[in-house]
From TrEMBL:
Organism: Neomicrococcus aestuarii
Coiled coil: none
Similarity annotation: Belongs to the NrdI family.
Function: Probably involved in ribonucleotide reductase function.
Name this polypeptide is given: Protein NrdI
Designated gene of the protein: nrdI
Annotated GO MF terms: FMN binding
HAMAP family: NrdI
Annotated InterPro entries: Flavoprotein-like_sf, RNR_Ib_NrdI_bac, RNR_NrdI
Signal peptide segment: none
Pfam family, one: Flavodoxin_NdrI
Length: 141
């Protein structure tokens, strides 16, 4: 650990872009959550306990750059890869086959379950389903 790292034991880790759609969804959940830094000048986040990752998909280029670079950097830290247990995707159905592609790619690459997908900021039903799903998921871990 370096002095500039920010450690977390949160069971929910998320990334939200400047639009903060994902942050608004996470705020509705009311779970303790840690945000992956948006800017390189911020202290890197390091997990010290199992967590579920919630992230949006970036569009464009047929999904080639669907995973936000900040999430790639976060997952390049072996400590974070060791602790990830599942992933939840946010997306935009306008992306077509790239809808929630970032979550699907991460689930496949790391061999973890993709737990849920929702569009943009999610609906009240999405919030309820994710909340209940996370409670159930952690009971079985």
């Amino acid at each position: 650990m370096t002095p500039s790292e920010r450690l977390t034991t949160s069971r929910l880790v998320y990334f939200s872009s400047i639009s903060e759609n994902t942050k608004r969804f996470v705020d509705k959940l009311g779970h303790d959550a840690a945000r992956i830094p948006l800017y390189p000048s911020e202290s890197p986040l390091v997990t010290t306990a199992p967590f579920v990752l919630l992230l949006p998909t970036y569009g464009g280029e047929d999904g080639k750059h669907s995973i936000p670079p900040q999430v790639m950097k976060f997952l390049n830290d072996a400590r974070n890869r060791e602790n990830i247990r599942g992933v939840i995707g946010a997306g935009n159905t306008n992306f077509g086959t790239a809808y929630c592609l970032a979550a699907r790619k991460i689930a496949a690459k790391l061999g973890i379950p993709e737990l849920y997908r929702f569009e943009l900021m999610g609906t009240p039903d999405d919030v309820r389903r994710v909340d209940e799903g996370l409670e159930e998921f952690w009971k079985h871990q």
